[in-house]
Structures are given as C-alpha cells and as structure tokens.
Write a structure and sequence with these properties.
This protein has a domain of 134 residues: Umud Fragment, subunit A. Strands 1, 2, 3, 4, 9, 10, 11 and 12 form an eight-stranded antiparallel beta sheet that branches. 13% of the residues lie in helices and 28% in strands. The chain is α+β, with helices and mostly antiparallel strands. The protein is built from two helices and twelve strands; from the N terminus they run αββαββββββββββ.
Length: 200
C-alpha cells in the first residue's frame, strides 16, 4: 500500500486582529438592528387622563406589544391600546380594558356588567358605576368586534359611548410593562374571566 508522507511545506492558516474601527462599526450596526426590531415589536405610550385609575395614572409610560396581537387575538381582561371608532389620524390612541370579544353579548344592568348573561367580577375598577354613566343597555358583538371599558367607569370615554364597536384592525397592541416612573414599574397583570362567560 502506497503511503504519502506529510509535507511540511503546506500553507498554514493565519489569524489577524480586526481593527478597532471595524469592531465599533459592527457593534453600532448590531445595536441599531436590535433597536429597530424592538421598535417594530413594541411601542411606548404615555398615559394621559384618569380613565384607567386606579391601575394607570397620568404620565406613566407603558410598553405595548404589537407581537401579542400579531400571533393571537385580544382576550377579555387584556389592557389594550387602540384607535377609537371615527377618530381622526392626529388624535392619540386610547388605553382601556377588553370586556367583550367577537360573538359576545354585553349588558349593563343595574350598573353592573354582564357578559353572555354572566355577571363579571371586576376587582380592578375604581368605584361602582353611577346610573348616569352606566344606564341599562345591551350590545351584541359581530366578527372582529370588541367592547372596551375604562377601569374608572365614571370618568371614561369608551365603548359605552362609541357609535360602533372597536374593530380588530384598530387595536394596536397589549400593554405589557409600566416602566416610568420607577416607583410604578411593574408587569401589567392580565385578568382572566371564568370560562362560563364564553358564548354558546
């Protein structure tokens, strides 16, 4: 059997240090790419007004995830940011809680909220709703329609007053984190209602 002796004349790979300028450029490009991805996936909003008290207050800054509703649908109890019906493009979006989802029947009776005939337990609301702010009324939601209400029911402009329900295409995303001021930092808690409220 013929053997080949190793040659000592074969070229060897060489390593050389990369220049600092290139390292800095690539690091800056990586940071810019990460920043762009974060901005595509999330958006930041400043709360303005009392409609979500006691859970959100004016000048708090929240991170809203667009991704959550790209890969899933809004759920009852989510805190969502959306553009209200018939709103002009230069008006700021609203932040409210999702009370009804497509197919639901929402009823306000004796200042209490019922979804598909089941009274909602709502530990997050600021105070009991007054009769002038929560008159008896029924709404039936069609496909891609949502019913939004503020946690501060007596001081909230929401689906009770909108001319039409909030459609899916007007929902921007779900509030996930409150990060300013530092004393208010925290994850936005998600409320899950009993399965019994699901439409038949």
């Amino acid at each position: 059997m013929e053997q080949v002796a190793p040659s000592n004349n074969l070229p060897r790979p060489h390593l050389r240090a990369r220049g600092w300028g290139r390292e800095i450029r690539e690091t800056l490009l990586l940071i810019a790419a990460i920043y762009a991805l974060v901005n595509l996936a999330t958006v930041r909003f400043i709360v303005d007004g009392p409609s979500m008290q006691p859970n959100f207050h004016t000048d708090e800054v929240i991170v809203v995830s667009r991704l959550n509703y790209m890969f899933g649908d809004p759920q009852r109890g989510d805190v969502a940011v959306f553009n209200p019906p018939n709103q002009s493009a230069d008006e700021p979006p609203y932040i409210k809680r999702v009370i009804g989802v497509p197919g639901d029947t929402i009823e306000i009776r004796d200042q209490r909220v019922f979804v598909n005939g089941v009274q909602m337990e709502e530990p997050y609301i600021n105070e009991a709703c007054r009769a002038d702010r929560c008159p008896d009324k029924i709404w039936s939601l069609g496909a891609n329609e949502y019913f939004m209400m503020g946690d501060n029911r007596n001081h909230s402009q929401d689906s009770r007053a909108f001319s039409t329900p909030v459609t899916r295409d007007r929902i921007i995303g779900e509030a996930l984190v409150r990060y300013w001021p530092p004393t208010a930092w925290g994850i936005v808690s998600r409320i899950r209602y009993p399965e019994g409220v699901n439409p038949p």
